[in-house]
Amino acid sequence: MMWQLFIVGYFIFGAASYLLRRVLAKRLSEHNRLINAIFFLFFLAPTAVILSFFFPHDLDIGITNLLIVFGGSIIWPLLGIASFRANKDVDVGVFAIISNLSPLFTLAIALTLLNERLSVVQFIGIGLLVVSGIVAASSHLKHNRASTQGILFCLLSAVVLGIAVAFESFMLHRIDFGSYLLYGWGSQVFWAVALAARDFRKLPVLLRDSQTRTPLIAWGASSSLRSVAFISALKISGSAALISAVTDFMSVVIVIAGYLFLHERGHMVQKVVGAIVGVVGLLLIAGV
Which residues contact 25 (CB under 8 A, 6 or more apart)? Predict the structure, then answer.
């Protein structure tokens, strides 16, 4: 089926995106905000425009929705900055596993604001996610300030991602997806550029160096294509639960990809166990 091909693309482009961000974060950590802005401005914005032709949209969303989506959209650029910082010091596999904790914070918001309830099985899933995060983090919690800071930024990224997903879900109950592409993603571009405004003078330096330019373009392209593949699979399959369950396996793919391509082979038992336990936890939370 066609959606399965898009899922394969999602895993390929997703793995490439994670690995390339790790490479950039280690090599160009001082350009964090600028690299984040480059992605939003030169890759996410064109992707949003292209996708808008395939999703109907009503641009008259009202001033209240417009203000909410504009103000709340800063959360995604902040996520990009936090994730990039985390990748400076932490193996890509560990980062992917700890990122799996984000649903805990999304659920915390849903339980608090939306009065949702969890089943016993979902509570077990939450417990497994916590265990997976502890197992993965333990591989980096040494008497090493950089590693400890990296883990803290991983946790911060998971918190921010959980909030961002909750915000996006909230907005998609208020406006259609086509409108969110234009207003939501457009606002994200604005905030990313605003946060990096003082750094844009360094852009020519980054682009002149082929050793920087090539991975930067590859990262931006793979990140955009990952989003396109995910949205396409979701639209074609018509089942959010199915796509969510399948994509939960991304952390396992990242651990393997990090081993093969970045030679991040330390503490593999902890990484593999953490990834598998995390996937089981995610599946239980999703009710699969």
Answer: 32, 84, 85, 86, 87, 88
Distance (Å, whole) CA 238 – CA 1? 13
47 close to 55: Cβ distance less than 8 angstroms: no
Distance CA 85, CA 49 (A): 29
Distance CA 113, CA 83 (A): 26
What's the whole-number mean pLDDT along residues 147-170? 93
Reduced DSSP (H G I as helix, E B as strand, rest coil) percent helix, strand, coil of the chain, to 5? 85, 0, 15
pLDDT digits (tens, 9 = 90+) for 4-29: 999 999 999 999 999 999 999 999 99
**Res. 71 pLDDT band, cuts 50 70 90:** very high
Tokens found for residue 25 = 């974060």
Helix (H, G, I), strand (E, B) or coil at 57: coil
Instruction: Give the angle subtended at the CA of 79 by the CAs of 205 and 247, to the nearest 5°.
Output: 110
Q: The tokens of 28 are what?
A: 């160009």
CA distance 34 to 254: 25
